[in-house]
Write a structure and sequence with these properties.
The chain has 253 residues and is mostly helical. The protein folds into two domains: 89 residues; 144 residues. Helix content is 67%, strand content 5%. It contains twelve helices and four strands; from the N terminus they run ααββαααββααααααα. α8 packs across α9 and α10 packs antiparallel against α11. The longest helix has 28 residues. It is elongated, with a radius of gyration of 23 Å.
């Protein structure tokens, strides 16, 4: 089932107008299409009008439009989830908690294993990146790690997480969780030699620490909720991947 079919077959004339309006379609372009007693436009004519306006939208605008329409359809008709999922995956989208996000960002099977608070922020970060809110995406990505470190601080009695920098908080939480000793033990059980384990773990620890620094810096320099700072989109994408890695390391049992 395509989104077009889901709209035409599953919703009334004016519900369709409402949904595409929420997705950003210029409703003034289809304002003349109205249902009237004994006449007026049909749903087929309405869909043709929507197709015409949609065809004039640029690629980024189309992706945004499709994402919002899909989320609205799923919100109002959750039973369409399975039938839409295959169609959406071919367009490069995946569904996480009825939120449509680019498939290259996260593996849904990994996200479901993360704590709800951090998972919610990661999904929000992906949605904001999708919708062009790059500063908001950085803030949400950092928020997912904040939630994970705060949980570790509380569980381990590490004090006030707000008293430390983002990077320091991550480093202290990772140490309290025993992330590196656990990896050393698991690699040893796999038969790795100590001479291989030690440099690997040292570099992995350094990578996590550097990732935290990258996120800390991006939050400071680009994570402006008012959108007044210049932002590089590839770095925002990277911050989301670092966030997922850090949260997983902090919460993996």
């Amino acid at each position: 089932m395509s989104l077009r079919t889901a709209l035409q077959d599953g919703f009334s004339f004016y519900d369709i107008k409402e949904i595409v309006g929420l997705a950003g379609l210029d409703l003034t372009r289809i304002a003349h299409l109205e249902q009237k007693a004994g006449g007026g436009a049909s749903k087929g004519q309405l869909m043709t009008g929507i197709d015409r306006v949609f065809g004039e939208v640029d690629e980024e605008g189309r992706r945004h439009f499709l994402a919002i329409v899909a989320e609205e359809v799923l919100k109002r008709r959750p039973e369409t989830r399975d039938s839409l999922l295959d169609y959406l995956s071919r367009l490069g989208w995946t569904l996480v908690e009825n939120a449509l996000i680019p498939i290259e960002l996260f593996d849904p099977s990994e996200l479901v294993e993360l704590p709800p608070e951090s998972r919610g922020d990661l999904v929000k970060a992906a949605q904001r990146l999708r919708d062009g809110d790059l500063s908001g995406a950085i803030s949400s990505a950092c928020g997912s790690v904040d939630s994970a470190t705060a949980s570790v601080y509380a569980a381990e009695g590490l004090g006030d997480p707000a008293a430390a920098s983002f990077q320091e908080r991550c480093k202290k939480a990772l140490a309290a969780r025993g992330v590196l000793p656990k990896i050393e033990k698991e690699l040893s059980e796999l038969g790795w030699a100590t001479s291989d384990i030690m440099p690997f773990c040292k570099n992995f620890e350094g990578a996590l620490n550097q990732g935290a620094y990258v996120m800390q810096t991006l939050r400071s320099k680009m994570g402006d909720v008012h959108g007044t700072k210049l932002i590089l989109k590839p770095l925002v994408f990277d911050s989301l991947k670092w966030a997922q890695l850090l949260v997983r390391a902090l919460t993996d049992n």
